[in-house]
Amino acid sequence: MSNLELYNKAFVDGLGVEEKELPGLEYQAIPSWDSVGHMNLVAALEDAFDIMMDTDDIIDFSSYEKGKEIMAKYDITI
Amino acid sequence: MINYDEILNIPPYSMACEEKEKFLTEILGELTGHHYERCLEYRRILDAFGFEPGNIKSYYDIPFLPVRLFKEYELRSVKSSDTAKIVTSSGTTGQQVSRIYLDKETSANQTKALTKIVSSYIGKNRLPMIILDSPAVVKDRAMFSARGAGILGFQMFGRDRIFALDENMELDIKGLEEFLEKHAGEEIFLFGFTFMIWLHFYEALKKIGYHPDISKGIMIHGGGWKKLADRNISGERFKEGLNEVCGISRVYDYYGMAEQTGSIYMECEEGHLHASVFSDIIVRDPFDFSICPVGKKGIIETVSVLPHSYPGHVLLTEDEGVILGEDDCPCGRKGKYFAVCGRIKNAEIRGCSDTYADKG
Fold first, then answer.
1. Which residues pair with B189 in a beta bridge?
2. Mutate to test the interface with A, among B144, B156, B157, B309 (most CBs of A within 10 A)
3. What number is the average pLDDT over the span B34-59?
4. Is the predicted pLDDT of residue B121 greater than 80, yes or no?
5. CA B49 – CA B180 distance, rounded (Å)
């Protein structure tokens, strides 16, 4: 799978959303992306890319797009 | 406009008395004007006091709201369409709960402030985490009890999290053993509420005689001491007891409330609670509300720069406390340090751990 596919899959698995909903999706915009869903998403991303995110990055991870920038910090180009 | 990004980048225990008073007067003054403009009930209260929000000399002069008002009134400075979530305070059955209205920004700033404060204790790396509570508490995602919100707020500092208690509040020994084996030699973060930790972790371990090695653990706990004080368990005894059953030596209490989530007061290595740069404590005389000097017991007023969506930046609690000093704690942290002595008489029972009904 490509990085984009892995990234999208983490959202689909972590938040229970469909891939077509992802562009423009923001934290707390849908019921499943609440603080519980957020940590599920973080866990899914960490598993998918074998990384450990800093607390600051978890907080800054405010949207589907912003997350791509944050992944770059961990040398993952989406 | 209050620049929260800038504020939240200030190291939490870096500001000494004079600078901090200037800083808090500016921010809390601006917040007072903000809430005066946007919250009718708040404006009426200030008007009744004859207080002019445009002319604040010191944050000590801003009228405080009793925390009780958040139970009786819907106090918010945002439109209901901008309310992202409502946090309810803990309260035992039959007691009314506070309702705190949060918009996205206030909620995010609470999380950020909490992160700055807690990271200064446990570091930036996320640690394997044991939540000393039952997963049942966070099961209902639509209902945010303060206890659930506390767990959700702190779980960010952990990775590979487990709940140490099952749905019936029984210790999951097998799960704990496996977890500790997997993370042998690593620092481990433990979080829970004071009374639940004592009852369902300490006493359970003691009873079954299982003494896991958690000497590399860092525990943060909060939620009130009333129930343990009733059993004559002091803060000292709490630490000793935990050390006996699992070898842990880094145990930090915190003082905080749902009405000012995020800007919590953490205990230091000396056993003192500390105000961070995001908040402060004022102790008031119970008879005339004058400011108590260092060493004199009174009612605790808490101020916080975070409440933007509701007028909760200056609150009078129902707790008794005493300021122990300012800027000179041997731990090196700047700001006031203090102790909480208990609840004032006839106050309601509240606190995540104090409202917990022990069925055992």
1. B129, B218
2. B156
3. 95
4. yes
5. 57
Token pair belonging to B359: 């069925």
Predicted ipTM beyond 0.90: no
* Two tokens, residue B268: 């230091």
Distance separating the N- and C-terminal Cα atoms of chain B: 51
Q: What structural domains does chain B harbor? A: 10-81+270-343 (2.30.38.10), 111-255 (3.40.50)
Q: How far apart are the two ends of chain A, measured CA to CA in Å?
A: 12
**Global confidence as pTM:** 0.90
Amino acid at B164: A
Q: Is the pLDDT of residue B95 over 80?
A: no
Domains of chain A, earliest start first: 3-73 (1.10.1200.10)
The reply to whether residue A39 touches residue B156, judged by beta carbons under 8 angstroms, is yes
Q: With an 8 Å Cβ cutoff, is A46 touching chain B?
A: yes
The pLDDT tens digits for B278-289 are 999 999 999 999
Query: Taking CB atoms and an 8 Å cutoff, what residues of chain A touch B108?
Result: 59, 62
Could you tell me whether strands B336-343 and B314-326 are parallel, antiparallel, or unpaired per DSSP bridges?
antiparallel
B252-270 residue pLDDT tens: 999 999 899 999 999 999 9
Contact (CB, 8 A) for B245 and B190: no
